[in-house]
Specification:
Elements: H1 6-13, E1 19-25, E2 28-34, E3 37-39, E4 42-47, H2 49-57, E5 60-69, E6 72-85, H3 88-101, E7 113-126
Antiparallel strand pairs: 1-2, 1-5, 3-4, 4-7, 5-6, 6-7
Length: 127
């Protein structure tokens, strides 16, 4: 990923962890967990409901991922960027990539909307 340091990419792709997506709802933060995958210089997610409505109204988002062992943090990454809904075959491919990463059936949760997040800035750390 061009805008994400190699060490942060290595952390984000090391294992399937849950991310937390921050969107804006009525001028206030809204944070919810979700699955993700890094692909072609972007973060890909699928979502529905409040998260989807929020990012359609305001495409600026933040996503954090943290690795813990027995409640002790090991590392964390925060990505900030712009979200775009992805339609058609490209959207279907996002569903398949995410579901494969997390060991789900490739056709599971097809009602969710695929989204691409173009990363603008990144912070990461190790504890």
């Amino acid at each position: 990923m061009e805008d994400v340091p190699e060490e942060a990419v290595a952390l984000l792709t090391s294992e399937p962890l849950v991310a937390h997506l921050g969107t804006c709802r009525d001028g206030r933060p809204h944070v919810a967990p979700l699955w993700y995958v890094l692909h072609d210089d972007a973060v890909e997610i699928t979502t529905t409901g409040r998260k989807l409505a929020n990012l359609e109204a305001n495409a600026r988002v933040a996503m954090s991922v943290q690795k813990d062992v027995d409640g002790h943090p090991r590392w964390g990454v925060v990505l900030r960027g712009t979200a775009t809904v992805v339609d058609g075959e490209d959207g279907e491919a996002i569903h398949r990539r995410i579901n494969r990463r997390y060991g789900a059936d490739e056709d599971a949760w097809s009602e969710n909307t695929p989204v691409r997040i173009d990363v603008g800035s990144v912070d990461y750390w190790r504890y």
